[in-house]
Amino acid sequence: MYPLLSLPSFRPDLHWYQRALEELALRVLPQCPRAVRLPGLTGVFAPGGGGKLAAVGVSCRRWVTSHGLSINVSEEATPGGLAAPCGIEGAVGASAEEVWGVWGGGEDMGVAKGRAREAFEEVFCCETVDYRGGGGAFGNR
């Protein structure tokens, strides 16, 4: 999910934006209640060092964001396997399917995408609309 947002319309604060994306990931993973944030690191992790479930990568120019959030739902959905988390020595990627046995296969990817859209609307207090077949365009509520 790579939202293009004008942060002054929400909150012009990059740390807030990163934490909001992490919160979005935690809401997408409700079947995984022990998914956690780790102090000093960006992203969402499986408990007990089980790997990184969601990565946040933010770029911003003139307060307009690019890049965003990646949630590892299933290794099947990631050709070539899960990417190793950047900048965290010895860390591994993990998927919700691998850690908790949820969301394996293509049908479940639709469920995950629907939850991501709902979570985005909740966290950012905005409404999403389909744009040219599904990418999504966003506006404040």
TrEMBL record:
What PROSITE patterns does the annotation carry? BPL_LPL_CATALYTIC
Stretches assigned to the BPL/LPL catalytic domain:
1-128
Q: Which Gene3D superfamilies does the record match to this protein? A: Bira Bifunctional Protein, Domain 2
Pfam hit, one: LplA-B_cat
Check the UniProt entry and state the signal peptide residues, or none.
none
In terms of domain of life, where is this protein from?
Eukaryota
Q: State the protein's name.
A: BPL/LPL catalytic domain-containing protein
Its ancestry begins with: Eukaryota, Sar, Stramenopiles, Ochrophyta, Bolidophyceae
